[in-house]
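During the reporting period the student researcher (J.K.) took over the structure-prediction task from the postdoctoral fellow and processed the backlog of single-chain submissions. One of the processed entries is reproduced below for the supervisory committee.
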Amino acid sequence: VFTIKQTEKQIKTLRRKYAAIMEAYQDRQDATITFEQLGVDRLYVDEAHFYKNLSFTTKIQGLNATGAEKSTDLLAKIQYLNEITNERGVVFATGTPISNSMAELYTMQRYLRPSRLKSQGLYHFDAWASTFGQETTTMEIDPAGKGFRAKTRFARFNNIPELTSMFKEFADVKTAEGLKLPVPEYEIEIVKSDASAVQKELVDRLAERAKRIRQRNPIKLREGADPSSGKGMDNMLVVIKEGQSTALNPRILNADYEDNPTGKVSLCADNVYDIYQKTTAQKSTQVIFCDQSTPNSKAPYNVYDDLREKLMERGVAKEQIAFIHDYDTPAKKEQLFAKVRKGDVRVLLGSSDKLGVGTNIQNKLIASHDLDCPWKPSQIEQRFGRIVRRGNENKQVKIFRYVTDSTFDSYMWQTNETKQRFISQVFTEQIPVREAEDVDEFTMTYAQLKAACTGNPLYKEQFELRNDLQKLEAERAQYLDDHARMENQLNVHLPVAIKTADSFVQALRADVNTLNAHSQDESLVLQGETYRTPEEIGKAFAECARAIYDGQLTETPRGEYRGLKVSVVRGDKRGMEVALTGMSSTRFPIGLTTPEENASRLANAPKRIDEKLASAAAELDRLHQEVKDCKEGLVKPFAKEEEYRAKTRRMNEVSLQIEEQNRKEERAETKGLEQQNAATR
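J.K. obtained the following structure tokens:
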């Protein structure tokens, strides 16, 4: 909880920062033009997600509330522009407004629609968080591995439909599906590699190391490690990183391990060379993403050099293989990208970040290879966007994703897929689920690591059930929304609409009957005078209209035509009109210089009323059919209700079994620790 002392301390810190900024400004004031002096009244920010790290004040302990200076600077400029443009002077453009957490929507709202947050009482982060988030505080091993620390994070977000609605008030969301851009069709192929004996052994060791960390008895990673300070001691961050390296290639950890001819690197080389051969005539290109074991390091082994050697052994020319890491300036990168676009470089290797934003190499890309799984869903999207992109001359492309069984790979891909599916709901017309897990950067608890390593079928079943239920819940939410809409239509909208439509049909039918009863008399009576010929009728309308327009006639000219009342009135657009009125009303404009046309419009009025009657009757029939459809729809159950209930029950059963297994293991570990402590005493 924020105390007065803490608040005063924060105020002093902010004042100190402000004073430092102003002092720096004063030193160069003579040569500085301020933002206000530039006269800017519109600001366009591309790749706006780079400014998502905005500081905020919170009472929630454990959250990282510090921000980046560039984000604070941008906020100051935007606040100025919002003030002078009524929040209409800033445009953000980004393909990934959410990358780490749903809380980033709060940042977007602070930038672009602060007035909405204030009007809803949600301007302060804690108020926003209490409305849309469920934070949880758990005890986790500290990075040193020698103790526990409290970690607060948003485990789940709720009221998602309302949050999405607020976001879309100022966000113009364009998806690939909605835009229907001319991008190639794509196929995703999962390339599975069986874990080698070395990988299985390393995974078992990782599970044991994680267990020891959990017991606060981590191993020493090097000679001279200090258990009291934690330096050189094992920790979960190291375990997770080594787990990823093990899945990619154990030689990253120890170059002396034998090369695995059926491992991910070799399988990738086979696929790349196969496509390279088949597309030589077209000079098609390929991109390989790998965020680990990058080149130019001092390590005795790295995946990049190994993969290049394997490709060259198979027959790919060395000059047609490039590493993005060798091109360290914008000019050099653009030269490389130009070669890839032409097909002079046909295989490009890089990381998610280095080949992410600003990389335009799609022209001849025929295949993309994901050697490892990145940390965040947004990075997967960036990889995907390099190849499935407008400007690719290929009609069909392939995306290969390499997974080593019984390692961290499957767990990371499944976790990211689940998070990406949730993010996508926010930016589509689908009905969002009411609550869902947050999409924060990938982390692993001890239980999750164990699930990824042990091969326990319950963990696999739990993950599959969770994915299935998320899809079913989205479909069920759509069904319930449709059900509520039909109830509202049936009970509120349709009765009123049918009553109105029926009255309109009856009025038109009465007017048609009146016109038919006077079909033999085509004369017009206007202002007490009778006009029989088209020329007389046309001139009479024109003279009345001109008299009204000139102010010579103040009363509305009235008369009769085939049993219906006639009047000459001013139209909505300052012109003059004839109103033909019975139980309904039909109007047509008066031309001051074309008398015969006026008469023709009057003669055609009965036909127009006939057409209106046919249209109104069809609309009444449609409304009655909608009533029937709604009644039928309301009695239809959710088609997958039984599947939803069965999988929900099974999910609860599996979760309870896993919890019981974990409790038994914890009791055994506790007993072992007690015996160990007793022996040392």
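The committee noted the following: The chain has 19 helices and 17 strands.
J.K. will present the remaining backlog at the next meeting.
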